[in-house]
Amino acid sequence: MREVSQPATEAIRMVEVLRALGDPVRLEIVRRLAAAGEVSCNTIGGELDVHQTTMSHHYRVLREAGVTWTTVKGRTRLVRLRRDDLDTLFPGLLDSVLNGARHGRAAAGG
Amino acid sequence: MREVSQPATEAIRMVEVLRALGDPVRLEIVRRLAAAGEVSCNTIGGELDVHQTTMSHHYRVLREAGVTWTTVKGRTRLVRLRRDDLDTLFPGLLDSVLNGARHGRAAAGG
């Protein structure tokens, strides 16, 4: 298994988490991960019609901020939300973001 | 009173709010506004030792995202958090960010 750089729990900083979440594609990735659990990196990019290079960038930002955890298995990267870490460090943040994202989509009619 | 561009409540988008909060100086401004209520634009910049031009940029990002409300009185700009709007649109978001910001400062020893 190759290593990917991702912060230890105590190294996660809220400002980096907020920065990572402050992008429409990354927010949508987070919303889908919350619903799906662990998925292969390729899954969501295809659904969103976002180019693989762009998706790799977004996944890296999320991972380095501590929002997601990536496990490399052979040629596959599995990604999941660091829900426990985030809920422990910043109680209520992820839930309010996920609820707010639903609200935003509803308001936008999408 | 001059006009400043700031979105109506229904035009506030969570992704823009998160983007605005995802910066250490802006997060600190928000934290101080939460504690102080309405302040003159010049107050916080002096306390943080951030140049006025940079502060103006940060205030504009916060205002255009709908995080803050600016009232212009003569030469003075008064800034306050749009707490009611944000709490209504994204319940729990601002509270979790403010609590998390305190956590982050404590963890950093600052």
Give a structural overview:
2 copies of one chain form a homodimer. Chain A has about 110 residues and is α+β, with helices and mostly antiparallel strands. Chain A is built from 6 helices and 3 strands. Chain A starts with 13 loop residues before the first helix and ends with a helix. Chains A, B: InterPro entries: ArsR-like_HTH, HTH_ArsR_DNA-bd_dom, HTH_MetalResp_TranReg, WH-like_DNA-bd_sf, WH_DNA-bd_sf. Chains A, B: This is ArsR family transcriptional regulator. Chains A, B: GO terms for molecular function: DNA binding; DNA-binding transcription factor activity.
Give a nutshell description of this structure.
2 copies of one chain form a homodimer. With 110 residues, chain A is of the alpha+beta class.
Name its key features.
110 residues; alpha+beta; 3 strands; 13% strand; globular; transcription regulation (chains A, B); ArsR-like_HTH (chains A, B)
